[in-house]
Write a structure and sequence with these properties.
single chain, mainly alpha, 233 residues, flat, Arc Repressor Mutant, subunit A, Tetracycline Repressor, domain 2, 12 helices
Amino acid sequence: MADVAGVWTRERPAPRRRAPSVERIVEQAVAIADDEGLEALSMRRVSAELGSGTASLYRYVASRDELLDLMIDTVQGEQEPPAPTGDWRADLTATALHLRAAMLRHPWLSAELTGRPGLGPNALRRIDTALAAAAGCTTDAATAGRLIETVLSYVFGAVATELAERQAIRRSGLTERQWQASVAPYLKQVFSSGLYPHLARQVTEGAETDAGQRFTFGLEVVLDGVAARSSLR
């Protein structure tokens, strides 16, 4: 059984002369994951980039899984969590935007945050900050937790859509607007059949928005639901 807590409680030796520190190891691992995805990450690859022997890395980081835990917590601490204002809606909005920014900076992060919660200091602080914001909606701890889960589920889903669009751009070489222009003749032909009136209206009459605007709109809808549920409207 893996020693999950040991990642955060175990004392690590001071780096030997010319050996990379744990912080440097994690920094290099994050750079690899950002550029190439987690599938490119291995202890051997990190050691090669650092010009160090693979065996020496294991002296400071016990495994790839432990390295990933350290990476996840490190990137969550790159920016300070938003300071509470006492306005639950503003605080939950700031929490959502803070998380979205981190996941867009590090595309591999979102998939790692949707499972069991991290136990590192930055992850725990992020969760505690979010729960403090939710406390403005309810005094019940269990309900506060469910409200946060709801907001975070929206953030994860919205960011997944944004990352998928980035991947589509890389794969096709077309921006979203260029892709829309390329399929416009086909859609015009399809819509002329009258079989898809609602979709045709949405495409032809809907206002064009960017990813940030779509995210904000969706978040406001979710928070309207939180307000209604909490009788705070």
